[in-house]
Amino acid sequence: MIQDIGAHRFDRSYSLARPEDGDVALCYLPGKVLLRKVEGGYALPHFSDFPAELAPDREKCMHLFALDGAGCYLADPDPAEEQLPDASWEYVSLQMIRSVRPMEVAFTAITGAQLDRWYRSRQFCGRCGTRTEISKTERAMVCPKCGLTEYPKICPAVIVAVKDGDKLLVTRYAGRPFRGWALIAGFVEIGETLEDTVRREVMEEVGLRVKNIRYYKNQPWAFTDTQLVGFYCELDGEADITLDRNELCESVWLGRDEIPSRENDISLTAEMMERFRLGLEK
Ligand SMILES: [Zn+2]
After folding, report:
1. From ligand 1's centre to the CA of 126, what distance in Å?
2. pLDDT tens for residues 33-78?
3. 175 contact partners, CB below 8 Å, separation of at least 6
4. How close is the Cα of 132 to the center of ligand 1, in Å?
5. Does residue 282 sit within a domain?
6. Domains identified in the chain, total number
7. Same structural domain for residues 194 and 268?
8. How many CB atoms lie under 10 A from the CB of residue 276?
9. How does residue 282 score in pLDDT terms, banded at 50, 70 and 90?
10. How far does residue 167's CA lie from ligand 1's centre (Å)?
11. What's 116's domain CATH number?
12. Quick one: average pLDDT of 150-169?
């Protein structure tokens, strides 16, 4: 999965440090991140890689986290796409990050994008409208007037693999770019336990009851500011699907041999489907 970066060290410690030559500059345009094409994949750009006229202003860059000891900074200003010096520099669509390798580059780029989006959307206090400031002690935006403190947006959501013997319930979402099979998924609502969310989402999306809800794994999913929590469960009662056409365009029961392989996918959904397909999830 995208957070599985092997022996690489991702350090989330908060810091007010300033960038040095070997540190990483994360540049974001709407929906895109600046990467460097290298043999066999992509690399994160270092401050020392930039030609002088495109170099971010180190006094304005903000420390986000560190990868393998190199600080990763939100760059400012971001070079315009037409200013890029040659074809080795590329603003890659965040939609395409799923296929970027190595994984530590993909994970760093998308996690930085989540923080970039959050900082941009918390410029003013939601209570009194004063311009917010960056906290000096923790990852937060603070209102200097009323003290309101905002932390990064991370919304819990469930992914649900509903089993009925040797069949798995799969879905296709309406109105989203991803066209492959998915699992039932949805955000946790106020006052719910995660198991409540599982039962409600399955009932809302396909009109089925479930039992034996069992936690599997979870995954930070920066694409949608989400913490995805995966559950397997079993059908309880009738298997006839009543589709919520606002959310889904299709939902069917697939046998293990009908599920397409997604072994190189980065998502918890794919891993859960793959486990079922391979018979690892009885
Ligand atoms: Zn305020």
Report:
1. 7
2. 999 999 999 999 999 999 999 999 999 999 999 999 999 999 999 9
3. none
4. 8
5. no
6. 3
7. yes
8. 22
9. confident
10. 52
11. 3.90.79
12. 97
pLDDT in tens, 210-231: 999 999 999 999 999 999 999 9
Cα(129) to ligand 1 centroid in Å equals: 6
Q: What is the per-residue pLDDT for 243?
A: 85
Domain holding 106, by residue range, is 10-120
Predicted confidence at residue 173, as pLDDT, reads 82
- Which residue shows structure tokens 């809302």? 204
Asked if the model's pLDDT at residue 263 lies above 90, the reply is no
Residues near ligand 1 ion, CB 5 Å cutoff: 125, 127-128, 130, 143, 145-146, 148
**pLDDT(177) > 80:** no
- Rounded to the nearest angstrom, the distance between the alpha carbon of 197 and the centre of ligand 1 is 33
Ramachandran bin of 3, using left for φ above 0, alpha for ψ from -120 to 50, beta for the remaining angles = alpha
- Tell me how far the alpha carbon of residue 211 lies from the centroid of ligand 1, in angstroms: 45
Whether residue 39 lies inside any domain: the answer is yes
Q: 152 CA distance to ligand 1 centroid (A)?
A: 17
Q: Is the same domain home to 56 and 116?
A: yes
Ligand 1 centre to CA of 124 (Å) is 8
Paired tokens of 203: 């009932």
Could you tell me which residues come within 8 angstroms of residue 94 by beta carbon, excluding any fewer than 6 positions away? 31, 32, 33, 109, 110, 113, 223
